[in-house]
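I am still learning, so would you mind making up any protein sequence you like and the tokens describing how it folds?
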Amino acid sequence: MIVTTEIEIPESLYSSITEYIEAHKGWSQERVMQAALSLFLLQNGTNQPQVNNLYLDSLFNYRG
């Protein structure tokens, strides 16, 4: 299941994400956010295999 969210972020962060995506054509805004959020959760004690899988999938662009 996919859930859509709307967030406010600093313009400098948005610019950095946009520049990264433009330089790395295999990445999308969704993929960057999935990688960032799942890594944050893993680093802060989440022990859920689904989150680990989402993180690895986002890094390696795997859609299983």
